[in-house]
Amino acid sequence: MEQRFFDLRIDVYVPERWYLAAPVGLAGEELDDIWQFSDGKSVEVRERLRIPLHRPGKPLDFTTAGAGRTPILSARTASVFRELAPSDVQLFPVEVEGETEPYYLLNVTRQIRCIDDAASEEVQFYPPEGVQSHRAGEYRSVSGLRIDKSKVGDARVFRLWGWYSPVIVNGELKEALERTGIVGGRFVEV
Question: What sections of 38-101 are H helices per DSSP?
Fold first, then answer.
């Protein structure tokens, strides 16, 4: 049976949901690089991080924090990643403002070059000249994302080379997350 893969997205339609601000140090100091958790690479976190509320509301099992779209998970959701994809992720305990329950920052440590340009609805690339010339050849926009599954290998969760915001999970991980009753995440097949 062919593997299926899904873009794990935030569900903005959860009524009265919370919105989280970018991770900061415990004393409130900004991180040097808020995008480090979306690169698909291992990172070193030397201190515990705090996640301020941007807008209070209903806590979620999966959401993202700040402009860097850092994935934040409840303990039950984090346990699924820890159990099924330990070699593909790092999980860092974080303090979410106003919460006593444990939460975790999810850093996906795999990045795979597997976007299927022809099968995707539309792709646009950064040109070699212009404001973002350092990103030349990377994706500027991807609509109707499709991936080439033959390039994924044994990854269960990964980021996409050149288009970093999606968190891609395999069907087994999706089903396990759904069995927990995940609130805040939705899945779109890619």
Answer: 75-84
